[in-house]
Write a structure and sequence with these properties.
CATH class: Alpha Beta
Largest sheet: 8 strands, parallel
Distance between the termini: 35 Å
Radius of gyration: 19 Å
Number of strands: 8
Oligomer: single chain
Helix content: 40-55%
Strand content: 5-15%
Shape: globular
Length: 296
């Protein structure tokens, strides 16, 4: 899909699903959400610092990192922080811990990795860390790995809360990672409810959940208090919202109705100029939220 087709697609969606044919109004300046970008999605488009510029030019407030900080010297760290601040960006979320939380035998390694990452998170002024479950363990019952997840995350929460950090656990769909243990937000919400710590939430990635099991909105409605972060990409292809089968207009409206006030992070491969793509995707979300404000 080229730039013109993408923008026409979003305009059509807005007219059909959001405004029911009415003229689109200017996007309000008082956004209900903060917007961020998983920066690895721009790797093939631009180097790190150029990626920051692209994100800022599209009107976003944050970036999310995986391993970009690995190998940075103290001077590099200061330079990157300074560049982010000059562009009005923060690092709002980071990942990069290899150990999974669903392995009952890996708690020492997991805690060591968390303790090693925390100084980097503090240096980058990043308040949130993503954790993955790790793989299914051959011969180990599901319930054993569930209990390990709860126990291990409670131990991680002890550390996170000392440093005023939040943990979000991310399910990955089995098409992308057939070996991974945690594949759905349904299970993730059960884990978070069992952990029962305010510092542990769920990363609701609509792309992964649609590929794995669908039924996106009902699970969102039933568990909104446990959602700590939202990731956005369409299916198939991991491209812009509005280019595939997910009705993001409905999802954004539901997030507004449920008073979600956290971060919406784009984690997709742009099919056009990335700055234009990200700007259009942000406007799409805000237009959907604007209709809820009008109805009220």
């Amino acid at each position: 899909m080229n730039r013109r087709e993408f923008q026409q697609s979003l305009a059509g969606l807005a007219a059909l699903h959001i405004f029911q044919g009415a003229q689109l109004s200017p996007v309000p300046s008082n956004s209900p959400w903060r917007f961020s970008v998983m920066l690895w999605t721009l790797d093939h488009k631009a180097p790190f610092e150029r990626g920051l510029e692209i994100v800022a030019s599209a009107g976003y407030q944050g970036v999310q990192l995986v391993n970009e900080y690995r190998g940075w010297s103290q001077q590099d760290m200061r330079q990157m922080k300074s560049r982010m601040h000059s562009l009005g960006l923060i690092c709002d979320t980071m990942s990069g811990i290899k150990s999974g939380f669903a392995d009952p035998h890996a708690i020492s390694t997991l805690l060591a990795e968390c303790n090693a990452l925390i100084p980097i998170a503090k240096e980058l002024e990043c308040p949130q860390i993503i954790l993955l479950s790790g793989p299914r363990i051959d011969g180990m019952p599901h319930d054993v790995q569930f209990k390990a997840s709860v126990d291990n995350l409670q131990r991680v929460a002890d550390i996170a809360e000392k440093h005023n950090l939040r943990i979000v656990i991310e399910p990955i769909d089995p098409l992308e990672n057939p070996a991974i243990w945690l594949t759905s937000v349904s299970e993730a919400f059960k884990i978070v409810h069992a952990v029962a710590r305010p510092s542990v939430k769920v990363l609701y990635d609509f792309y992964h959940e649609q590929r794995g099991s669908g039924n996106l909105i009902e699970k969102l409605e039933n568990n909104i208090e446990s959602v700590g972060l939202v990731h956005v990409a369409d299916v198939p292809g991991r491209h812009e919202p509005g280019t595939g089968e997910i009705d993001y207009g409905n999802i954004y409206r539901k997030l507004a109705v449920l008073k979600y006030d956290g971060i919406i992070a784009m984690e997709y491969y742009p099919t056009e100029d990335p700055s234009s793509s990200l700007r259009t995707s942000r406007h799409y979300a805000l237009q959907a939220a604007q209709t809820i404000a009008r109805i009220r």
